[in-house]
From TrEMBL:
A Pfam family assignment: Phage_int_SAM_3
Gene3D superfamilies assigned to the protein according to its UniProt record, in alphabetical order: 1.10.150.130
Family that this chain belongs to: Belongs to the 'phage' integrase family.
Protein name: Tyrosine-type recombinase/integrase family protein
Length: 212
């Protein structure tokens, strides 16, 4: 939940002549809180409160994930959330996928403005550009993780990935005029050198003559 100002402040004067001010706001947990100010002069108090309100609004704007460009938001998400929880090779793959298959297409667009149509267009461009199915699917999976977390944390009102499915592999390859062959139809041919290595491994024995 985002922090929110509930008013621009109220001012009153105490019996001893001092001026008191108070601004009400909600914190990131939705709890209503108050910020109090005091001064001997009303003008000084008003200046303090005006500065506080302006700074508060700037902080809210800077922390609003929905208004950040996707490239900035996703880079921060990868560093903060993914770097600590995945293997380094996985993290490097995430960064590479984002850099080459996501940012060039929607990296400059504000996160909150991205629609399901934008995602479908991105995946279609992958297909038309000749990207391998697995390459495009990695981008799809990364976007799905990213937007799911933003939605769960309340940073965006809607998840654009909720209604998007990855194109079926056969259809993806057909659009590229490629054929998806079952694994049983593929024939692997080893070189003579590879066959010698296989035989060497197959006939290895322990020192007592027992086969591995």
């Amino acid at each position: 939940m985002k922090r929110e100002l509930l008013d621009n402040g109220n001012i009153w004067q105490k019996s001893d002549g001092r001026w008191i001010g108070m601004v009400r706001y909600k914190d990131e947990y939705g709890v209503t809180k108050r910020k109090s100010f005091s001064s001997k002069k009303k003008k000084t108090l008003q200046a303090k409160m005006t500065e506080y309100v302006a700074n508060f609004q700037d902080q809210v704007a800077n922390s609003d994930e929905s208004r950040k460009p996707l490239k900035e938001g996703m880079k921060n998400w990868l560093r903060v959330y993914k770097y600590p929880e995945v293997e380094r090779t996985t993290y490097d793959r995430y960064e590479c996928t984002a850099e080459h298959q996501i940012y060039p297409y929607i990296g400059k667009k504000p996160v909150g403005d991205i629609t399901p149509a934008d995602i479908k267009k991105l995946l279609t461009k992958h297909m038309n550009a000749g990207y391998a199915f697995t390459t495009s699917k990695k981008a799809y999976s990364l976007l799905k993780m990213y937007f799911k977390q933003l939605y769960q944390e309340g940073a965006i009102p809607n998840n654009p990935m909720a209604m998007i499915d990855m194109t079926k592999k056969d259809n993806y390859l057909a659009a590229q005029n490629k054929e998806s062959k079952p694994q049983c139809d593929l024939v692997v041919v080893f070189t003579d050198e590879e066959l010698e290595k296989i035989k060497a491994e197959a006939f290895k024995r322990f020192a007592n003559g027992k086969p591995h």
